Amino acid sequence: MAVIDDPEAAEVSLDPVRARLLAELSEPGSATTLAERVGPTRQKVDYHLRTLERHGLVELVEERRRGNFTERVLRATAASYVISPSALAAVEPDPARSPDQLSARWLLAVAARLVRDVGELITGAAGARERVATFALDGEVRFASAADRAAFAEELAGAVTSLVSKYHDESAAGGRAHRIVVAVHPTARREGKIR
User: Fold this and answer.
1) Model confidence pLDDT, tens digit, residues 112-130
2) What is the structure's pLDDT at 123?
């Protein structure tokens, strides 16, 4: 997975033809082979590939001599991409601007910060050939009522606060701060409808 934090690279990756080419390039391919699968002419595919390459989204695997031209074989630099909110720094969500913790907008701003921060950590760790120590839980709970949901949220907040109090050591020499994010939201169906 790669994190796109450059605004121009984000714009390039969102073009429908280029996004399709990125998906196709999970396996190496050339403008000729991709044109057969994707549809535009080889010349148009080559133009899009060079644009993707300029922004570091695809890389050259090899060059082969084919008749009177050189065929360039490329592959995507990652299996999947996430666009960091920092690509839109001037308008990136900020939890401080919507401090209502029960607001969906606040949750989205916190999630955007999570994507930005973890994306920066992944990029830095990749450059240093290190791993990032993280932990995540993902699950689903069905509440019988809104009152049950509210009680669950209150109990969860108490449990997390207790754990944080138990392990947080402000004076730990050489300690490293970690952010904790716990979220509860309705499960969304892939077609966008809330269940």
Assistant:
1) 989 989 988 988 887 788 8
2) 84
Q: pLDDT tens for residues 29-59?
A: 999 999 998 888 999 999 999 999 999 999 9
Domain check: are 75 and 8 in the same one? yes
What does the alpha-carbon distance between residue 153 and residue 151 come to, in Å, rounded to a whole number? Answer: 5
Beta bridge partners of 3: 82
* Domain membership of residue 74 as a residue range: 2-81
CATH code where residue 29 lies: 1.10.10.10
